[in-house]
Amino acid sequence: MLKTLGIQSVEELFSDIPEAVRLKRDLNIPAAWSEIELYRHFAAMAGKNANLEEYVSFLGAGAYQHYIPATVDAIVSRSEFYTAYTPYQPEISQGILQAIFEYQTMVCQLTGMDVSNASMYDGPSALAEAGIMACAATRRSKLLVSRGVNPEYRAVVKTYAYGQNIEVIEVGVDNGATGLQDLESKLGDDIAGVLVQYPNFFGSIEDLKTISELAHRHKALFVTAVNPIAMGLLEAPGKFGADIVVAEGQPLGNSVSFGGPYLGMLATTKDLVRRVPGRVVGQTRDLDGRRAFVLTLQAREQHIRREKASSNICSNQALNALASTVYLSCMGKQGLQDVAKLNLQKAHYAYHKLTSVKGVEPLFNAPFFNEFAVIVSGNPTEINRKLLESKIIGGYDLGRVYPEYKGGLLFAVTELRTKEEIDLLAERLEAII
Question: Tell me, what's the pLDDT at 91?
Answer without folding.
Answer: 65
